[in-house]
Give the backbone structure.
Amino acid sequence: MSIVRLIRMTIVSRSYDSRVGFARLHEMHFKVARRGSVRANRRTLARRGLPYFQRKIYRKYHIWIPKRKLKVRFEREQRAARVQRDVSVDARTMRYRGRHWSATSLPSRMISYAKKRH
């Protein structure tokens, strides 16, 4: 029986919104507990999270961010009590101009770990 690990991933991107004249920093934190190899779980979570991040930012701010501009980082895994079927997503956006920062927290969501079949 393999160990259940809590995997945490952060996706960050920076962009400039010329319509309002602010620079924006978008970040999403993904969290899920899974069995199996760390490498496979990280790869699957990244493949699931990147398109989700792009889609959500585009729908909210009408800015398409290419994958090469996204930074994906993982935290060290921890043991978890049981396997989760869904991924928890917490998002926030920070906008800044000069030295003034303001942060906006977006509603947290749950997405499925596995892609749905059509």
User: Anything to note?
Assistant: DSSP finds one helix and six strands in the chain. Residues 38-61 form the longest helix (24 residues).
